[in-house]
Design brief:
This protein has helices at about 20-30, 40-45, 50-65, 80-90, 95-110, 150-160, 165-170, 185-200, 245-260; strands spanning about 65-70, 75-80, 115-120, 125-130, 145, 200-205, 210-220, 225-235. It is α+β, with helices and mostly antiparallel strands. The chain has two domains: about 20-85, Arc Repressor Mutant, subunit A (Orthogonal Bundle); about 95-260, Beta-Lactamase (2-Layer Sandwich), CATH 3.30.450.40. The chain has a six-stranded antiparallel β-sheet with strand order 5-4-3-8-7-6, sandwiched between helices. A hairpin with a 5-residue loop joins strand 7 and strand 8. The protein is globular and about 55 Å long. It starts with 17 loop residues before the first helix and ends in a 6-residue tail after the last helix. About 30% of the residues are buried.
């Protein structure tokens, strides 16, 4: 069993220039795998800004190489400077650095891809992954944001939410990514209670058909769940017969990382 993570909400003070920074960040966050390029007018509409303000912000971001223009279409894409910033962020992340040797061992022992993921709002963010040694392995690329209710790691993180925060989340409609995705609030609440009790979560075909993952929590010295690790791969290989041994590997690896963070069962 692991403890419930309390979510603290802090008021944000408004300083001069805060609005411009917030708007610029909103423009950057509008880019995704599904929408890697934006026309000026479309991006302005999506961000709820007028074209003049949007153009001014985009020009500043382009000057810093955070955005670039497609010479053929004239559309905007994320720039090369963000790659450098992202690389620095990954290399300097202490949780990622601490977890990597354990993830490498987990991937080698299981023969499957191993990931480290954290919660960002109602998504899980993949901050590290060790690819499977199997040529038919399935991966979730670093930087991907995945719906929290449809992943094994997401269930681990949801199970750690305070009751009020979980109730608020379950009050909103849950999108079905596959026929197996749990979208009924009562069913998901029951599933999370089991995850909280057993300290392990499964997702079989819930994120995408034919993909199975098993995850466990990473806990810090304050007994807060700060991340989750998982192994995942094709369901034809992660069979019901293999899942218990994989779950034991994942739990052991999660405990190793947790102990490095100062956690000790009591």
């Amino acid at each position: 069993m692991f403890s419930v993570q309390e979510i603290d909400l802090h008021a944000t003070e408004v300083y001069p220039g805060t609005q411009a920074v917030a708007r610029a960040l909103a423009l950057l966050k509008a880019f995704s795998d599904a929408q890697p390029e934006w026309a000026l007018s479309d991006l302005a509409q999506a961000a709820g800004l007028n074209k003049t303000t949007t153009f001014r912000l985009l020009s500043a971001l382009e000057a810093e190489r955070l955005l670039m223009r497609n010479p053929l279409s004239g559309g905007y894409r994320l720039g090369v400077e963000l790659i450098a910033i992202g690389g620095t962020a990954m290399r300097s992340n202490p949780l990622r650095a601490m977890s990597r040797p354990v993830l490498v061992t987990l991937a080698e022992q299981s023969g499957e891809a191993a990931t480290l993921e954290v919660q960002v709002e109602n998504y899980v963010l993949v901050i590290d992954e060790i690819a499977s040694s199997n040529p038919m392995g399935m991966t979730q690329d670093v930087g991907n944001r995945l719906p929290i209710h449809a992943t094994a790691t997401g269930k681990v993180l949801l199970a750690a939410r305070a009751d009020a925060a979980l109730a608020s989340f379950l009050a909103e409609p849950l999108p079905a990514l596959t026929e197996q995705t749990i979208v009924d609030p009562d069913c998901l609440r029951s599933e999370l209670a089991r995850v909280r009790q057993e300290g392990i979560a499964l997702a079989v075909g819930e994120l995408e058909p034919g993909f199975t993952a098993v995850a466990a929590p990473v806990v810090d010295r304050e007994r807060l769940v700060v991340a989750a690790i998982s192994v995942g791969g094709p369901s034809v290989r992660l069979t019901q017969e293999r899942l218990p041994s994989l779950a034991a590997m994942v739990q052991m690896s999660a405990r190793q990382i947790s102990r490095q963070l100062g956690y000790w069962p009591g």
